[in-house]
Amino acid sequence: MEGEEQVRRTIGSLSAPAKHLGPRFRRNDNLVFLAKSSAAPRDPSSGRFVALASNLGYQPTMDGRKLFAGPCEFVAGAATIEALPETALPEIAFVGRSNVGKSSLINALTGRRALARVSHTPGATRQINFFQLGGRLMLVDLPGYGYARASKALSAEWQRLIFAYLRGRANLTRTLLLIDGRRGIMEPDRDAMQLLDDAAVSYAGVLTKVDELSEAELREVQSSTEAGLSRRPAAHPQLLATSARDSRGIDTLRDHIAALAEAWGNTV
Fold it and tell me: Of 102-116, 145-159, 202-216, where does mean pLDDT reach its minimum?
């Protein structure tokens, strides 16, 4: 089809890691987009990144609570690039600064207190952990970045592992960039955004620990974070605000993830 050929030509201009993905093409409102890819292709006429199915009126029949009520099991931990497991399932990656609350958020999403290890020591997670959710998708907990007290050599090793995964994972459906709601976007977050933009990896901003903010503080950090994300070509337009402590925004994030799993082809 003509639309599919346009997107194929567009993919040819993307960075190398995006070219080997297996896309499923659809059409919506005269915009061609990729529903099964970690890359967000550019529209041939405008040059702008084209949104995924969940952004353009695709109506999923997902049930986020049902998905996350199912079994969730630890599958593998990879401390090196060579140890990354091969999987056929779509993957949702959680990435953010050390101590941003990734493990707590994963535990809140799955309703399990100890699925992902929660540590009070920033930088304690030193491998990429894979959790299979109901046989339908993988939740991927990446090591935190930007911890100043980690040795320079060790910090560089972690970041090579994180970024090698983000740039080269064929079935990475969406990256969730966790941003500490108490601090907003910081310099290490901007570095991560730049890499995701350069690699054409679709990502969504997720504020964490919003229970510690007043309503006025939350509005302020939402506004500044949305402004920062709006300038990023691969960023999803919706900013999610969450709290693992009081479950704020957890159901919304579950639905967001379930919609991505369904768009990939796994009916929830």
Answer: 145-159
